[in-house]
Amino acid sequence: MDIVGFLKSQFICHLLICYIFIVSGLIINFIQVFTLILWPINKQLFRRINCRLAYCISSQMVMLLEWWSGTDCTLYTDPESYHKYGKENAIVILNHNFEIDFLCGWNFCERFGVLGSSKVLAKKELSYMPVIGWMWYFLEIVFCKRKWEEDRKTVMQKLLNLRDYPENFWFLIHCEGTRFTEQKHQISMQVAEAKGLPKLKYHLLPRTKGFAVTVQCLRNVVSAVYDSTLNFRNNENPTLLGVLNGKKYHADLYYLMLFTFSFTFGRRIPLEEVPEDEQECSNWLHKLYQEKDAFQEEYYQTGTYPGVPIVPPRRPWTLLNWLFWALLLLYPLFKLLINMINSGSSLTLASFAFVIVMASVGVRWMIGVTEINKGSTYGNNDSKQKQK
Fold this sequence. Notes:
Elements: H1 3-8, H2 11-35, H3 43-68, E1 72-77, H4 79-82, E2 90-94, H5 101-111, E3 119-123, H6 132-138, E4 142-144, H7 148-161, E5 170-173, H8 182-195, H9 208-218, E6 224-232, H10 240-245, E7 260-270, H11 278-302, E8 308-310, H12 317-343, H13 346-368
Parallel strand pairs: 1-7, 2-5, 2-6, 3-4, 3-5
Antiparallel strand pairs: 1-8, 6-7
């Protein structure tokens, strides 16, 4: 193993990265609280400031993917559509197969300049999570309890609030509602059979009501729907822990390209082509997922997608932002550590060791949130319910 790869795999490096992320995130969350005074005075200024503050947090995650693990991003798309990415509001439909698919979605938001303003439809529990969950609260992220009877009114109101948003944004949505697993796929296909819907091989049935309401509320605000499918070459199944370790998944691409993924982002569908009627919109989405399944089948057979492969340029801002916070926060940490060692106090050193242990547990818990085998049971408990 080369020295760079060795350093990337060391737990102390992981702790320092997580220390920078958590402490800087909490500082930014604290600043976001004070921006609330702007809301009744100048709502648009509040939003613009929080887009920049949110970027300072989410770009650190993207930095890990782009600079720490050396991710190579290949985009298959129509060249005419490529020039519109980042210059318009869009609904982005993503598949939900990998532990880091959310991070790959952020990666493309970053490369097209909409990372700070990007939106998602997220489960309510995430709003209580420090750093990212609190950041999302100030970004006016749409949270839901995954009980449509309770969610519908709240989701519609939050979506309608975005109609005057001052920044271009992408609304990222996983229509399947949960990550793909064989167990969930089996249940989903039982629902498909009961409803007389065509079965899918590589996706779960989409949950159409949330998508239909999103289209309804954001019509005339959003210009297009981007149909997007993420895959990793050579059947790799990367994890956030792997990214943190800088693990080399593709030796034939050397250590510069540890994760290599293809992202078909090529179907830009003007929003006026998406039906307004809820049932027609539902039928449209089911048809789209049948087409996505065909794209996936083609990828497994050929190792490529239709469309022109393009590598969006990597921007330096994620790395510069991380370096800023590293310089700001590591100096007082090292100074504190030296002072504690010089003090020679057993109690002080024991306290520091306890903090390190607790920090390591916290880091592992945060990573565990992304793991598929510890993911949501949403979908597993639906075998006796109708698909939303």
